[in-house]
From TrEMBL:
Organism superkingdom: Bacteria
Keywords assigned by UniProt, alphabetized: Transferase
Coiled coil: none
GO MF annotation: an example: nucleotidyltransferase activity
InterPro entries tied to this protein: MobA-like_NTP_Trfase (IPR025877), Nucleotide-diphossugar_trans (IPR029044)
Domain MobA-like NTP transferase, residue spans: 11-170
Name this protein carries in UniProt: NTP transferase domain-containing protein
Cross-referenced Pfam families: NTP_transf_3
Amino acid sequence: MAASASPRVTGIVLAAGAGRRFGGPKALASDASGTPWVQRAVDALQGGGCDGVIVVLGAAAAQAALLVPPSASVVVAAEWEAGLSRSLAAGMDAAGDADAVILVPVDTPALPAAAVTRIRTAAGEDARHALVRSTYGGHPGHPVLVGSVHWGHLRAQLSGDAGAGAFLTRAGATAVECGDLWTGADHDRRP
């Protein structure tokens, strides 16, 4: 009997927003050492075992694309101004025949690869049917994994600036505590 192939999981960095509260597109932000947040997100997804990474851009896409490592693909969400829902849909469309996607917003520059690994591992060998969300002290956060059989249902419920959170709650996503790895904090405002 042949061994089954590992599920193909694509990482998606959601980096299309204008960052109004932040004071500019977060896709252009860098950490204190000068490393672009978008590079940190790509590194975490690749280090966590994603088979490929897609960075979804919108605001300042031409500038932000210059910060994306060559190992990742860039997709520009045509309707990014309509909110996170359009960026998420563009990322899932670009993921093609992946078995699952792992979603992270660009404003989580401290995300460790270990959190991505933990979420991917929790999905098991049948990642196509999996729904997994990280939690921090019981509070939902990122990364999250959405198996491909759920993409149509998720897409049908996307609207405006809402992401996958409500869908994951309604669908009973498996919660995986990652608070021992990092805080799960995102940056709505400049640090």
